[in-house]
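Two proteins, back to back. First:
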Amino acid sequence: MLTIIEKGSGAPIVLIPGSEGRWEYQRPAVEALAQSFRVVTFPLCGERTCGLGFDPRLGLDNYVAQVVATLDARRIERAVICGVSFGGLAAVRFAAAHPERAAALVLVSTPGPTWHPRRRHQIYARIPWLFGPLFLAESPFRLRREIAAAFPRRVDRFRFVTEQLRTLVTAPLSLSRMAERARLISTIDLVDDCRRIHAPTLVVTGERDLDHVVPVQGGSEYTRLIPGARSVTLERTGHLGSITRPREFARLVDEFVAAAERESLRSSLSSTDRGDAPRADKNDAA
């Protein structure tokens, strides 16, 4: 059975987690968004807790199918699609493949449409059982400056790190599945997908000098390729902005969706003035 987590009420928003595959690592973002939205999320397919397997032949489309199944299971016609990091790649493909179901698109710390992992990390992905522990061991050093910037007070840093360690224990990572997703990133090119997207799009990045996971320059590629897309920078954070500054992140998303709804209403009124019949879908988010 497909595992689906739902919190909050309001306009529906689907949150696709990153390469760690477990929604629990996005819990702060989920809880912050749930103050304004009906948040629907899940573990990525292939995870033992998901209920869906991963078909290597389908690649990124595995996750597109998972979003479709999730929307259908919750009887949601359209929703804001929010992808975090690796999940943003799946969100792009979904918005391109199913434009009628993507009311808006939010890409958070998402690798650029043609970005590939560093050679060292590609080697890690080929032999995850050997190099995976090394990758995890170096993560605190890569994220140290970002966490210090997001949490100037030592007590807050300690609380955040402790909570992440607790999540690691309760929602253990699979190095092999993370490596599988890293290898997938090395094979995809989303340029054509971006050009097919017409949903209002918000690209959220951290500060250029604080994201030591993927280059934030990739965000400018999305704003260039996706018609009408706009970008915003979460200050005092890097790759982890959705969970280091979840309330600020949720505020940005809330304002963006509200603006998209106003623009949709103006378009509908303009269409009515021209004599066109506006179409209203139940459960629309925008």
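And the second protein:
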Amino acid sequence: MKLLQLPTLALEERIKEELEANPALEEDAEQIQEEDQYDNDEAGEAELDENGDPQEVEMKNDVEMEDYMDAEELDSYKYEVVNKGKDDDSREFVVVEGPGFRELLEQQLALRNMSDQEYMIAIYLVGCIDEDGYIRREIELIVDDLAFNNSITTDVNEVKKVLSIIHELDPPGIGAANLQECLLIQLNRKAEKTKDVLQAIEVVKNHMDEFSRKHYEKILKKLNIDSEELKEIMDVIKHLNPRPGNSDSKDLGVSEVVPDFIVSVNDGKVELSLNSRNMPELKISKEYIEMLKQYSKSKDKGGKEASSFIKGKIENAQWFIEALQQRYTTLLLTIQCLLEYQEEYFLTGDESKIRPMILKDISSRVGLDLSTISRVANSKYVQTPYGTFLLKTFFSESMSTDSGEEVSSREIKRILKDLVEAENKKKPLTDDELCEQLKEKGYNIARRTVAKYREQLEIPVGRMRKEV
């Protein structure tokens, strides 16, 4: 179950850990190439039958497990696992490594004219920057930490001085204490202080609360400006970066999304393959098998202990190989069932074709536990001709229209999103108004359900969608 819920990248790391921890487990990257070459050589030397065709040659394993293991232990024993079929695509991604986000900041600090102590404080402050690019800790607490943990005696004024140097680094806005300071840093660093920029500074500095709550009437009155001028001010502010720390997602631990399944449509048929990127072919080490064979014949205590140790490593390797194979089978069974259930969507890409589907629908079809299907749906991605999606997005509740037709809640969410996109932004639709428009289209749902779907779509309430 733990292996099943791992996405592709995490599984690769788990396999690497197992290979490092268990010497009885080996990666057989060249097996296919060697076997193909071996088959070609054997075909060339094969004896011909009476019809002139090559005779079948019975291949014998050069290692006989029966020599040192009980027959009952061999029943389920497999020597290797291949996690990809001959028709599966082998997809490789080129990743270019470069300096991390914090390393880039430290490189910029090295070019600044600072004392040794100021540089050490600056490095500490860079380490305090969170994933959004802010330093949210109070200066007094930072001073205490520097004294107790880094043996650096300083004061609030010196830390503020160093912090002002960090505010001059790129990307602009880095190291701010909050959104207001972040925006002000970026505005003050603009080379040209046009009228719009100066007014934007005034809005962010003195009217940030009204601006964030979209109380535009109050801003118009206080600054004595018209709507067109406010639009220009808002345009300046909207082009600022509220999260400068997201400039480098790699350093902030944002994982690359690698699809576990690849769906394509050829000649009107849906075709499926499992993404086997960097998935090694594993096998039991022949060296360890030979060692077990030798030590199993030993009668002394040391030989028996060595035999027991090696046998344990081989059994652990075998368990891991079988677990990977079971994971592969479960994934394939689940996604194949899902493809059959949602075939119309995968053929057309039309979201209105997505059928209402819950975990139980797939669980009952494939004969697997609900928790198993849930683990697959919540952590696996599928690449389709229409985009890459998390599997759980294809599961949705069933709702009935006025005509009695069952539709997916995903279809209702799509219509809800379309209504919000088409609304008058100067007077956005409330949840009650959205509910009424959905009812006019035949979807009889409650206002609280509209609010729930809106939140799931990450659409703010009407007041927060208002524009000038």
